[in-house]
Amino acid sequence: MDRQRLIYLIKKRQQGKCSAAENAELHELMQTPRVEKEILLLWDQLHEEKTLKVSTDDSKKLYDRILVNPEIVAIIRNRSVGKAKKQRQRKYQKIVAAPAVLAIFLGIYFILFQPSLEQEERSPKTADTNTAVHPGSNKARIIFENGTYQELGNNSETVNINRDNFFTVNDKNGSISYLESSTINTRVAKTHTLITPRGGEYVIQLADGTKVWLNANSTLKYPVSFNGTTAREVELEGEAYFDVTKLAVNNKHVPFLVKSKGQVLEVMGTEFNINTFRNKVTTTLIEGSVKVAFESKSTDQFYILQPNDQSVYDNKLEKVSVAQIDPYYVTAWKSGDFAFDNAPLENVMEDIARWYDVHIEYKSEVSDVRFSGKVSKFENIETLLQTIEWTGSVKLKLNGRRITVMK
């Protein structure tokens, strides 16, 4: 076996840059007898380069699963016998003492190059386009004041839409922009609603320049125009990322309010994420400063959030908590990724279900299972599920548009 070629292909596969021909070549190389031993012999070179990264917790789980394979255990043990027994024994002890590192490199074989066994356990793909599972895309529906609506996201070119004396621009990249018009009657407040379905997301620029990224299965209700000195008020259900523009009329600041399930958030000019899923309102501040208050009579206090602060409001229990967090894991969806840091598996699967528009069925209790990692939102669904399987100590079976979760 050409060891250098194997290393080269492994690196390209890990980076997602393998061509179809290189994938076929790599698969053929991995069918070579005793390829596991060859990977172990590459240990020092791969370890020194440190080209792969896996969290310690995930690596430990993968390591435990590797050690139940008697062939792999035998290969490791065989390294501790022979002419250089003492030297190899020290090497073996070093490996066993660092399961996270061993898991990274043995995991190359199991995660990347033996998917067939996992795939055989799943039902074969169907040609029915109604059951084929694909990542979400830019799509939404805008509902006008009179109840009519316009589907968004299927236009190959930029188009203009004229409704209620204002102009919008439906962009082929998945965004819509409102432009202020001098002909708008500010005494008649018109509102529109933007809805993203499961498997859809969209970006909207409001008339004041505020930009909102709306995640899948979410709704934003907003005024057509922000002319005047009254507060700019929108309503959100679901999840959205806001980049709010400051607005002043006659040197007077015009507040921007976001109402969501009993919470009222007031901003001056800032960036933040709001998530109303799971019966809670989770607000994460990225830049600036916001004030969160609540409509509940028993929750009469308010909180001023600073960057990296996250407030969680349980509107059923009427309780609020505030903590400092890493906002990366909250906002990764906006950049096209799933990112989780020791998140409950149920939350992970719920996010996947919304984006891929699939249903989740649990055959086992998984409340003790947590997941850490980053995966592209546009990854093939089977590859995504396989990644979670190896790091989450669960089995995931895809059948049509249903994912069954079991231990």
TrEMBL record:
<feature type="domain" description="Protein FecR C-terminal">
    <location>
        <begin position="338"/>
        <end position="405"/>
    </location>
</feature>
<dbReference type="Pfam" id="PF04773">
    <property type="entry name" value="FecR"/>
</dbReference>
<feature type="transmembrane region" description="Helical">
    <location>
        <begin position="95"/>
        <end position="113"/>
    </location>
</feature>
<keyword id="KW-0472">Membrane</keyword>
<keyword id="KW-0812">Transmembrane</keyword>
<dbReference type="InterPro" id="IPR012373">
    <property type="entry name" value="Ferrdict_sens_TM"/>
</dbReference>
<keyword id="KW-1133">Transmembrane helix</keyword>
<dbReference type="InterPro" id="IPR006860">
    <property type="entry name" value="FecR"/>
</dbReference>
<dbReference type="InterPro" id="IPR032508">
    <property type="entry name" value="FecR_C"/>
</dbReference>
<feature type="domain" description="FecR protein">
    <location>
        <begin position="193"/>
        <end position="291"/>
    </location>
</feature>
<dbReference type="GO" id="GO:0016989">
    <property type="term" value="F:sigma factor antagonist activity"/>
</dbReference>
<dbReference type="Pfam" id="PF16344">
    <property type="entry name" value="FecR_C"/>
</dbReference>
<protein>
    <submittedName>
        <fullName>DUF4974 domain-containing protein</fullName>
    </submittedName>
</protein>
